[in-house]
Amino acid sequence: MGMTIIVSLLSITISSLVLASRGLHYQYDQALYISPWTSQEAKVPSPSISPSFDSSISTSPSPSPSPATASPLAPALFVIGDSSVDSGTNNFLGTFARANHLPYGRDFDTHRPTGRFSNGRIPVDFLALRLGLPFVPSYLGQTGGVEDMIHGVNYASAGAGIILSSGSELGQHISFNQQIQQFTDTLQQFILSMGEDATTTLISNSVFYISIGINDYIHYYLLNVSNVDNLYLPWRFNQFLASSVIQGIKNLYNVNVRRVVVMGLAPIGCAPHYLWEYGSENGECIEQINDMVMEFNFLMRYMVERLSEELADFSIIFCDVLESSMDILKNHERYGFNVTTDACCGLGKYNGWIMCLSPDMACTNASNHIWWDQFHPTDAVNSILADNVWDGLHTKMCHPINMKDMVIR
């Protein structure tokens, strides 16, 4: 068993962080990323990056309300993803993609910015409490001791994508494969501290939440990096992205991960940024963008179902964020939202031109808004999405079962 884990760990590509300006990003693409299907990734040690942010920001794991259950339904929650679930990783990176300033976090439990791209909680905060766990700390935001990671770790990084260079024009980020590598580093620490048997029990009973892929559209395909949209039709691009996620999940399976929640992509064609950029007259969603998202989600669900049949003793579900989000948009009055197109915080038409930079740019009450900033939903929407992931409270979005059924079987 020990040799199996070691071989599996070595089979995962060791990647590193990339810091690049937009100009350097294009040079890097021309040299190594003629197409996004290349298997090359920079192989240098991950840098140790010191935090450099405002003293008002909480650098310790976010305080949590007392868990709802005396005995957790899962020993730990591990999160891999992008800004939709980043709990503070990018506070420690050299990037423009940071939420380490007010008004981000103003409605969070501490009323202070933590690095979450929301006015309050993100979906995994709500789900951690459902599992009976504390909020999951970011990988770069804790000391590295096993006792700090025993209930889970959040590796998510704003701007990150499935493709290594997606989002590089914003600065440093930690891509999908790099986050998996960080998890394998955590796993090695667990083995050294607790032993292999205890680590296998912990990991196989924990929940892994994956929410990534939207930046491969926002910062790669829709920007036409390396002429990608002229070389590859959306369907082929979607196939590459979905296949890459599946391969990453297989790598996790090889190190005894047995419970995985795969999130689909949100309807970014309805996000304030694209309503502004594409000149939506009356807040109509940009259908050509949502069509790509819908296609990716369809393909991802199909591949997840096939993987579930292929791997023994493996519980994996796919949750269609577009499906749940469109239900919120269409039935916004029932959910208590009366502002469906304008972000609470930003500038320009729909507040979609410039991102949320200062408290003066934010609305007074975010609870009646669907969108918090250019791309991210409000705490209120995140709560609804988490309810749907957990047990389909408002609308069914997870297939074939929901997260609650996964953990109580």
- Overall strand count: 5
The class by helix and strand makeup works out as: mainly alpha
Report the helical percentage.
25-40%
Provide the domain count.
Answer: 1
Q: Looking at the structure, what is the overall shape?
A: globular
Largest sheet: 5 strands, mixed
So, CATH architecture? 3-Layer(aba) Sandwich
Stretches with pLDDT under 50, minimum 5 residues = 1-61
User: How is the CATH topology named?
Assistant: Rossmann fold
Strand residue percentage: 5-15%
The total of helices stands at 15
End-to-end separation in angstroms reads 26 Å
- What's the CATH class, please? Alpha Beta
Radius of gyration from CA coordinates: 20 Å
Q: Strand sequence of the main sheet, in spatial order?
A: 1-2-3-4-5
List the secondary-structure elements in sequence, H or E.
HHEHHHHEHHHEHHEHHHEH
Q: Overall mean pLDDT score?
A: 86
InterPro entries: GDSL, GDSL_Est/Lipase, SGNH_hydro_sf, SGNH_plant_lipase-like
Region (Disordered): 45-69
Signal peptide: 1-20
GO molecular function: hydrolase activity, acting on ester bonds
